[in-house]
Amino acid sequence: DAGVIQSPRHEVTEMGQEVTLRCKPISGHNSLFWYRQTMMRGLELLIYFNNNVPIDDSGMPEDRFSAKMPNASFSTLKIQPSEPRDSAVYFCASTPRVGYYGYTFGSGTRLTVV
Amino acid sequence: DQQVKQNSPSLSVQEGRISILNCDYTNSMFDYFLWYKKYPAEGPTFLISISSIKDKNEDGRFTVFLNKSAKHLSLHIVPSQPGDSAVYFCAASAGRGNTPLVFGKGTRLSVIA
Question: Which of A56, A103, A107 is closest, CB to CB, to B101?
């Protein structure tokens, strides 16, 4: 099993540009989570999906952030327009089901907005 | 407001000694607690967990203690090894598994040989 795959590993973009982060969960995992890691706030939940349906997006900081899960094997997190304060490491994680806490995290995408 | 707090950003311990990482929480509805370990350039990985019906869980060198009245948990690593050097995240969940994990800010552990 290749684990949770995130791309790109690193992204440097200019303020105002659109950024799309991608995630492929583990096959058979029905729950997918997007977290953001910063020094100030640690790991904070942005949004999570269950069976491809968004369940809770209350952690999405602003309308500039959006996430989709068009099928069981792919999810995207989009920031449009990006701002320097969005610079962080973004993690995707998946689990077989809600309530199973052995989350498998991807390696993350380090986003830098200049 | 942070519901899960790790007040020590970093900790240094000599190899072979005990490492104690602490975590406090504010939400009395939390009923399941976990520790995750993170190496640089990797995602966090699950380390050990404890349910609120227990006060201790042990797995090899790692033991987690839960004090519900104090809303406090701790991770003990004995003996500490250089390979334990990583960032450790405390996490919690409420609602008997129906809510996602809430993480703390993490504590960076350095085990010095």
Answer: A103
Name the residue among B45, B49, B100 with its Cβ closest to that of A45.
B100
Nearest to B80 by CA among B36, B58, B49, B110: B110
Phi, psi of B13, rounded to the nearest 5 degrees: -140, 145
Q: A80 — phi, psi (to 5°)?
A: -150, 115
Structure tokens at A22: 């991608």
State how far residue A82 is from chain B, nearest Cα, in angstroms: 23
pLDDT mean across residues, chain A: 94
Give the pLDDT confidence of B12-55 residue by residue, as tens digits: 999 999 999 999 999 999 999 999 999 999 999 999 999 999 99
Instruction: Inspect the interface and report whether the beta carbons of B42 and A107 lie closer than 8 Å.
Output: yes
For B44-101, the pLDDT digits (tens) are 999 999 999 999 999 999 999 999 999 999 999 999 999 999 999 999 998 766 789 9
- The tens digit of pLDDT for each residue in A50-65 reads 999 999 999 998 899 9
Q: Verify whether the Cβ–Cβ distance B97 to A101 is below 8 Å.
A: yes
Q: Could you list the beta-strand ranges (E) of B4-106.
A: 4-5, 10-14, 19-25, 30-38, 45-51, 56-59, 62-67, 72-77, 86-94, 102-103
The stretches of chain B forming alpha helices (DSSP H) are none
State how far the Cα of B74 lies from the Cα of B64, in Å rounded to an integer: 6
B112, B24 contact by CB (below 8 A): no
